[in-house]
């Protein structure tokens, strides 16, 4: 537990003072003695029940004051709570290297099966969008909660030439933030291309002047999951696009798919050895405060997406619990007042 206003914890020094005052009052009362006609009355006065009735209201009131003082210091704890992510955009590599059979029956089939399972296991409230990329990026499904549409979109994946990881990430950003214009001017994207609200007529300089970067990972309305089995062969630099995502607070979780040693792929009768760029995927995740995972088999890929499901549904976050302490303080004070009034009435 952490206290946001820890200096207010000094107020707890009031508690021993109050306890001392309470003991002092009790001792003052003992000086006023009564003569009893029978020792039986004395024994009844010192029974555990009598002690409880005498001191429990004060104890409860002390607990209430303690909770109130702790609440004033604004306590916070790290809790595992439902994640606030409402949109997940999947960016899937569909370059022809996905035909490789080092993962049975093939990389593309294994990927489709894993992505389908991932979509099915997400909570119904989560919207999912799908982007595929090879030589260029294509939005195959805008964010939706309709799982049937998503599964149908996954079945429509078409393999193409080249690998433009940066284009896929840029398209995913555009899907996640439709209110912004992530227009890519040519293949040499410098990370500061036009970013103005749709419909606005502003220059790139004006848009850049208005934009204020935020902390990486601070965007809580959505996340991108990017999977690739190859290396960038064209398109914008994915690290520059990743920095653009980081400046908007968007996390990008990356998945490297395929055996680390790579595998042969048949291209028009020619066998080409393919490996994925693990360092680039790790860098993309690192820049955006996301996570990187490697999947070297179909089973590994299922596990990766299953772990991502758990992370997207539940997330550890620091939560202020001042209200809990305030409620506890009020409850203890109420109980002390009720018991004091009730027992005083019975003993009067």
Would you list the SSEs in sequence order as H and E?
Answer: EHHHEEHEEHHHEHEEEHEHEH
Tell me the number of structural domains: 2
Apparent shape: elongated
CATH architecture of the largest domain: 3-Layer(aba) Sandwich
**Number of strand segments:** 11
How much beta, percentage-wise?
15-25%
Q: Please tally the helical runs, counting DSSP H or I stretches of 4 or more residues.
A: 11
- Secondary structure: helix percent: 40-55%
Which class do the helix and strand fractions yield? alpha/beta
- Order of strands, main sheet, comes to 5-4-3-6-7-10
Q: Which fold name is given in CATH as the topology of the largest domain?
A: Rossmann fold
Q: How far is the first residue's CA from the last residue's CA?
A: 45 Å
The major sheet is characterized as: 6 strands, mixed
Please write the CATH class name of the largest domain: Alpha Beta
Low-pLDDT stretches: 184-203
Provide the residue-averaged pLDDT. 79
* Whole-angstrom Rg: 32 Å
CATH superfamily caption of the largest domain: von Willebrand factor, type A domain
Key words describing this protein structure:
three-stranded antiparallel beta sheet; 348 residues; 11 helices; alpha/beta; Rossmann fold
């Amino acid at each position: 537990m952490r206290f946001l206003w820890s200096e207010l914890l000094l107020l707890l020094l009031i508690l021993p003072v109050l306890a001392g005052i309470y003991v002092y009052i009790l001792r003052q009362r003992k000086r006023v003695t009564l003569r009893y006609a029978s020792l039986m009355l004395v024994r009844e006065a010192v029974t555990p029940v009598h002690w409880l009735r005498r001191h429990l209201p004060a104890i409860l009131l002390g607990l209430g004051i303690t909770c109130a003082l702790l609440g004033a210091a604004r306590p916070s704890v790290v809790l595992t709570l439902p994640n606030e992510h409402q949109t997940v955009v999947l960016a899937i590599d569909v370059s022809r290297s996905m035909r490789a059979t080092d993962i049975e029956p093939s990389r593309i089939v294994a990927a489709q099966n894993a992505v389908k399972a991932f979509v099915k296991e997400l909570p119904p409230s989560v919207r999912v969008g799908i982007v595929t990329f090879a030589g260029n990026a294509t939005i195959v499904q805008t964010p939706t909660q309709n799982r049937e549409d998503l599964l149908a979109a996954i079945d429509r994946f078409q393999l193409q030439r080249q690998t433009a990881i940066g284009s896929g990430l840029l398209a995913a950003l555009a899907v996640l933030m439709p209110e912004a214009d992530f227009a890519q001017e040519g293949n040499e994207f410098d990370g500061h291309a036009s970013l103005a609200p749709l419909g606005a007529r502003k220059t790139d300089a004006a848009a850049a002047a208005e934009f204020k970067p935020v902390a990486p990972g601070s965007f809580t309305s959505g996340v991108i999951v990017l999977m690739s089995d190859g290396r960038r062969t064209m398109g914008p630099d994915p690290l520059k696009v990743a920095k653009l995502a980081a400046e908007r607070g968007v996390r990008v979780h990356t998945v490297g798919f395929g055996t680390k040693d790579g595998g042969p792929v048949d291209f028009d009768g020619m066998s080409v050895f393919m490996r994925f760029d693990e360092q680039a995927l790790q860098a993309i995740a690192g820049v955006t405060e996301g996570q990187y995972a490697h999947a070297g088999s179909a089973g590994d890929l299922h596990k990766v997406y299953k772990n991502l499901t758990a992370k997207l549904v539940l997330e550890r976050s620091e939560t202020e619990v001042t209200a809990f302490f305030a409620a506890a303080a009020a409850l203890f004070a109420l109980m002390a007042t009720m018991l004091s009034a009730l027992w005083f009435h019975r003993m009067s």
